[in-house]
């Protein structure tokens, strides 16, 4: 089994059955896994901020930093490897927050809102999600069977 | 039951900072920086000189000719850059270690510290805060107390975790409740023992409770480090199992007159800053 690490503001796609895509330390960042079980293609995106308009230049150099520029590229790259929209399963994790009752640091919540809007516009539903809370998450997907696991505070569960 | 006494004993056993580093940090924290004095100090410490020159001559800086003296390095790179290199060389060995209590693999605490330092500099620039060198060092050292608390957090983690879940209190509040001291206070004690001046350890002491800061002169620096730390934790930069279980201060945001959209901009600029520093800081 070969592990490919997806960093912060990064994305990877793969169709190699022996590979696992993994991303660490999702705090308020959003992790999105897409998987086509027919083509056996998976993609994993780790975006930090909701909208690219705050820094368009940065978005050009590093499109995966933002949800609105990262999501279209995630799908595009998966299509390039043979995935088809009709088969794609979407899972989302992350978007936690500090103990911020006044909601000033609600970057996580905004990340998730932008994802939902984008998917809704494109008639795509989220199959499973593990969103919110105050923990950091590690997310991985196996290309072979599309199994997605989320690890939080030493405990792992399947999504 | 409090473990404060044992933790303070632990702190005494931590490696001490070299006299050179302590003097450089103190000099850089003063209002009028005497460049010649700093160059002299570095030159008298062969270990720091060797490591600084090694980094200065690395491909990262892409300098045309071989740099053979600290003076030459300061002329070519500027004092600010050399200062960062000296700080990195001095503190990374201690802060690169694995921190078991917080479930941080080796490199994670260092990554979080560098990210917070870069975010603090970004905020300082935005609000035109003048003491940039101080901002970088204070932010870099803000979580150093986690090193001293690690074994105790590890041993009593179940109790801490249970209390955090039930009380919904900030992690450092529960640390203090169960261990008798939190990582912020422990960090300030470490820096005090190292002979680091008060204006640098105040932000470490109050980084989770900036509204309790009792020294007006230190308030702005405390606020900057608090905000930077909160953003870097939220962004998942070098986060342990204490996760995002910290309560940010609403008053800091008000005092600094920040809007939500500016916070996102700081995060984006911090990522760029980290990319630029990656090679020097080995993160």
Features:
heterodimer, A: 159 residues, alpha+beta, 60s Ribosomal Protein L30, Chain: A, five-stranded mixed sheet, 3 helices, globular, B: 283 residues, mainly alpha, Hypothetical protein af1432, 16 helices
Protein architecture, described:
The complex is a heterodimer of chains A (159) and B (283). Chain A is an alpha+beta fold and 159 residues long. Chain A has three helices and ten strands, in the order βββββααβαββββ. Chain A has one domain: 60s Ribosomal Protein L30, Chain: A. Helix content of chain A is 22%, strand content 36%. In chain A, strands 1-3-8-9-10 form a five-stranded mixed sheet, with no helix packed on it. Chain A has a five-stranded mixed sheet with strand order 2-5-4-6-7, covered by helices on one side. Chain A is globular. The two termini of chain A are 20 Å apart. The relative contact order of chain A is 0.22. The mean pLDDT of chain A is 95. Chain B has a domain at 4-15 and 96-281: Hypothetical protein af1432, CATH 1.10.3210.10. The longest helix of chain B has 22 residues, at 260-281. Chain B starts with a helix and ends with a helix. The model of chain B has no long low-confidence stretch (mean pLDDT 87). Chains A and B meet through β3 of A and α14 and α16 of B.
């Amino acid at each position: 089994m070969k592990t490919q690490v997806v960093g912060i503001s990064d994305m990877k796609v793969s169709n190699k059955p022996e590979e696992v895509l993994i991303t660490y330390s999702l705090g308020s960042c959003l992790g999105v896994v897409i998987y086509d079980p027919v083509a056996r293609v998976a993609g994993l995106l780790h975006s930090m901020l909701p909208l690219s308009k705050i820094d368009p230049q940065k978005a050009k150099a590093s499109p995966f930093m933002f949800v609105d520029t990262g999501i279209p590229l995630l799908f595009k790259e998966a299509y390039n490897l043979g995935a088809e929209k009709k088969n794609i399963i979407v899972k989302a994790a992350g978007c936690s927050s500090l103990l911020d009752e006044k909601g000033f640091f609600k970057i996580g919540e905004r990340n998730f809102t932008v994802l939902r809007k984008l998917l809704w516009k494109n008639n795509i539903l989220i199959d499973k999600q593990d969103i919110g809370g105050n923990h950091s998450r590690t997310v991985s997907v196996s290309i072979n069977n599309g199994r997605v696991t989320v690890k939080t505070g030493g405990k792992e569960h399947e999504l | 039951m409090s473990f404060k006494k044992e933790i303070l004993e632990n702190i005494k056993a931590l490696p001490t900072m070299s006299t050179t580093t302590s003097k450089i940090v103190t000099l850089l924290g003063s209002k009028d920086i005497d460049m010649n004095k700093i160059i002299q100090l570095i030159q008298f410490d062969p270990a720091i000189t060797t490591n600084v020159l090694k980094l200065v001559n690395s491909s990262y800086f892409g300098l045309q000719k071989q740099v053979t003296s600290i003076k030459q390095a300061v002329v070519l790179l500027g004092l600010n850059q050399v200062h960062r290199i000296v700080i990195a060389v001095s503190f990374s060995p201690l802060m690169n270690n694995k921190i078991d209590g917080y479930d941080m693999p080796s490199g994670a605490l260092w990554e979080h510290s560098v990210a917070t330092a870069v975010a603090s500099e970004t905020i300082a620039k935005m609000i035109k805060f003048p003491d940039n060198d101080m901002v970088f060092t204070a932010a870099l050292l803000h979580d150093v107390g986690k090193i001293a608390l690690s074994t105790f957090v590890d041993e009593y983690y179940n109790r801490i975790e249970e209390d955090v879940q039930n009380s919904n209190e900030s992690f450092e509040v529960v640390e203090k409740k169960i261990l008798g001291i939190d990582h912020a206070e422990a960090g300030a004690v470490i820096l005090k023992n190292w002979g680091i001046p008060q204006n640098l350890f105040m932000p470490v002491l109050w980084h989770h409770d900036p509204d309790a800061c009792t020294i007006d002169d230190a308030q702005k620096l405390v606020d900057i480090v608090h905000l930077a730390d909160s953003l870097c934790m939220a962004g998942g930069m070098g986060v342990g199992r204490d996760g995002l279980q910290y309560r940010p201060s609403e008053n800091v945001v008000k005092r600094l007159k920040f809007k939500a959209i500016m916070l996102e901009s700081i995060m984006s600029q911090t990522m760029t800053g980290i990319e630029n520093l990656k090679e020097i800081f080995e993160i």
